[in-house]
Amino acid sequence: MLCVNNYSQEYIDECITRVDSKVSAYKKLLKTARNKFGTEESSLNSAVQSFEPMFFNNMVLVLDAIFVHRARALEKKDGNPLNEVRVICNSLIHNNSIMDTDNTIKLNHGKSVLNYKPGG
Questions:
Q1: Rounded percentage of the chain residues whose pLDDT exceeds 90
Q2: Which residues, listed in sequence order, are joined to residue 70 by a DSSP beta bridge?
Q3: CA 90, 95, 101, 102 torsion-angle sign
Q4: Nearest one of 41, 111, 45 to 78, comparing CA atoms
Q5: How far apart are CA 83 and CA 87, in angstroms?
Q6: What share of the chain has pLDDT > 70, as a percent?
Q7: CB atoms within 10 A of CB 107
Q8: How confident is the model over 41-81, as pLDDT tens digits?
Q9: Could you tell me the pLDDT band of residue 40, with boundaries at 50, 70 and 90?
Q10: Sequence-separated (6 or more) residues with CB below 8 Å from residue 65
Q11: 94 partner at 20 to 30 Å CA-CA among 22, 31, 38, 83?
Q12: Residue 100 CA: distances (Å) to CA of 50, 61, 68, 70, 109
């Protein structure tokens, strides 16, 4: 596929709906489990603590994938949230889920959305 310089509002709306449905399913699962087992159930809390980071890391990969052909020129390299997503995805895929750096992007981790630091 060629580089994409813009996305139709219809495509963006479809992507929002798909992502919202996945997050809603997660929230419904968690609510159902908490209603059944209670909020103090340690095995449930342990399972949630194990699952939640993997789920949301995968959601970041999904977000990146649905806009994977975006033009790098439009994304820029000034440390914006799109740059942060790119660095997070590369870290998840190529650096064993350990936050890495990208020398082509001026990402200031202290000013980033998630505040992840390299090596963490």
A1: 65
A2: 4
A3: negative
A4: 111
A5: 6
A6: 99
A7: 21
A8: 899 999 999 999 999 999 999 999 999 888 888 888 998 99
A9: confident
A10: none
A11: 22
A12: 22, 15, 19, 22, 11
